[in-house]
Amino acid sequence: MSFPEPDSKPSLDVSPTSLDFGIFNPELPLTEQPSIQLEITNTGGGILIGRVIPQYSWLIVSPVEFRIGPGQSSQHIVRLSTGAPRGQIKREFNYTCLIILSTNGGTVSLRGSYLSTQPQQAPSIIPAWSWFLMSFLVLLIFVFILFKDMIAGWANGPPQPDGVSALYTQGAATVLAQLTTTTNRLKPPQTDTPEPPLFSSAKGIETPTSNLTPTYTPWPRTKYNVEQFISEYYATLNSQDYQHAWGMLSKNFQETCCKVGGNDPFVVYTGWWTVMNRVDVVSAYLQAWDKNPSIVYVSLHYIYKNGKTADLFQEFSLIVDAERNTLLIDQVK
User: Fold this and answer.
1) If we measure between CA atoms, which residue out of 255, 273, 265 comes closest to residue 329?
2) CB–CB of 78/36 below 8 Å?
3) Which end of the chain lies in a sparser environment, N or C, as judged by fewer CB atoms within 10 Å?
4) Higher pLDDT, 148 or 238
5) Distant-in-sequence, close-in-space partners of 34: CB < 8 Å, separation ≥ 6
């Protein structure tokens, strides 16, 4: 662990401020995907330190980090990968925040957009010939309903005498009863077993149920607030409660950061912070909830007891202490 050297304050300038990638076609190889060159300039004094932080996994940034002197610039390539979202039709995708520039000279959010192409073989829900067959069946049903009475009259033939009519009715009822009995015999017996679903899962694979709830790894956002934890850590140091702040570090970090020359690590740790008046947290950005340790990018403003100031960008690794039910700082670099 080390402190930055006091220096005049840097200032951030970036071009362009909006990322328009143009046409995106995922069927092309990665090297042919649209890209934009981002130019970052230090318009102030001192050293501008920071990172280009993509907010989506399908954005590729190279290089990610930069360290720029006064009046100098740094170039970074931002490229779409083949995993970027794409619809079934040609459409435009707009994002209010694609990139975040987190520096000791300020934080900037960049918006962006691109136009996705239409797939060469868009999936068809119903084949074209099916529409013709359905139309023909609908027409047959309509004709049958319209002329059913006329068809019934032709089937019955010319009017019969009363006696013949009675014999016909009785015979028809007898035949109908026989047909009904036969049909019932052919029907399978009714059981309480429900019918299988229309889309059943493959053999050996269980179908997900609706009572499943999403889980978050390694911890849910509602339980631990990493940004608040970072702020509380430095608030504890500012109040000179070094014993409490020491307890917010993991055993691993206590050994690696402060075990110097056989001295007591806690004494070394306390000695580092006695020269500091206070530390302000400018920004803290959690990079992913599905990582353990979880990475947080932090921008800090140091105020020394001699009146000098300095800025530093650091990467924190946080872990969960299940026994104490709290977060711990496992590494700072």
Assistant:
1) 255
2) yes
3) C
4) 238
5) 21, 22, 23, 24, 79, 80, 114
Distance of alpha carbon 229 from alpha carbon 203, whole angstroms: 48
pLDDT digits (tens, 9 = 90+) for 303-327: 998 888 888 888 898 888 878 888 8
In a domain, 199, yes or no: no
Burial of 19 (0-12, 13-18, 19+ CB in 10 A): buried
Tally of CB atoms within 10 A around 226: 21
Tell whether 189 is covered by a domain: no
pLDDT digits (tens, 9 = 90+) for 78-119: 999 888 888 777 888 999 898 999 998 888 999 999 998 877
Read off the pLDDT of residues 212-268 as tens digits, 9 standing for 90 and up: 333 334 555 556 788 888 999 999 999 999 999 999 999 889 888 887 777 888 888
Last residue of a domain, one of 73, 94, 116: 116
Q: Is the previous residue joined to 293 through a cis bond, with omega within 30 degrees of 0?
A: yes
Tell which of 116, 151, 184 closes a domain: 116
Total domain count, the chain? 2
Task: Give me the sign of the Cα torsion angle 320, 325, 328, 330.
Answer: negative
The CATH number of the domain where 105 resides is what? 2.60.40.10
Boundaries of domain holding 298: 226-332
In a domain, 112, yes or no: yes
Angular region, 213: left φ>0, alpha ψ -120 to 50, beta rest: beta
| Residue 319 is assigned to a structural domain of this protein | yes
- How many Å is the Cα radius of gyration of the chain? 37
- 6 phi-psi bin (left φ>0, alpha ψ -120 to 50, beta other): beta
